[in-house]
Amino acid sequence: MIVLVGSEKGGVGKSTIAAHAAVRLAMTNKPTILVDADPQSTSWSWAEARKRHQPEAAKVDSQQMTGDIRPGIESLAASYGHIVIDCGGADSVALRSGMMIAHRLIIPSKVARRDLETLRHVSTLVLTANEKREASEQSPLLARVVFNMTRALPNFWSRIDAARATVESMGLGVSKYPIVDRVSYDDSQYQGGTVFDGNHDPKAFEEMERVLKSLLRKEQPE
């Protein structure tokens, strides 16, 4: 499976979700690589730290790419069962080319109005990519927005519901499971870890497990 994590907005937790997706897929015992297509190299640095400090944990290889990433990803697909791509927060060649080769697109977003507005153009990019994929007889890219850094407050659910309606009106699907803003996600990534490694916050473990299962399972609900 090739999973692209990307959006046009920075600071929405793309690298955190990409790292957790890579580890969760590596836990299936299939060779997994995390490709960092973000100039900031956050995911690559995390994966390198994981190799040094957590040699007994689920193995995640790493590589950096820029520009049109399709040739590089096609080459990796011969050796890896799972590829997770972390793209930077911009409309880039890497993001557009990634949409042409990935099976899944995870689009992290906050529920703030300014963040949601950036999804309009992302929706257009997904539509254009799927038109090109259809023309070349490829299966469509399955894109899902996941609301990240939400608050664990009952009155915040109305904001999530309103944000979901806004995003769905743009033609994008939305994960029914949001991700709460928990310090354990940040703390667990020290030295290449995740909430799936060691004794971290069980609520975060269960939450991320639920989110990723819904986003990555082969059969997706309508």
UniProtKB/TrEMBL annotation:
Where is the chain membrane-spanning?
A: none
Q: Which residues are in the CobQ/CobB/MinD/ParA nucleotide binding domain?
A: 4-152
What Gene3D superfamilies does its record include?
A: P-loop containing nucleotide triphosphate hydrolases
Q: Pfam families recorded for this chain?
A: CbiA
- SUPFAM superfamilies according to UniProt: P-loop containing nucleoside triphosphate hydrolases (SSF52540)
Q: Matching PANTHER family, A to Z? A: COBQ_COBB_MIND_PARA NUCLEOTIDE BINDING DOMAIN-CONTAINING PROTEIN, P-LOOP CONTAINING NUCLEOSIDE TRIPHOSPHATE HYDROLASE
Name the record gives this protein: CobQ/CobB/MinD/ParA nucleotide binding domain-containing protein
Q: Which organism is it from?
A: Vreelandella rituensis
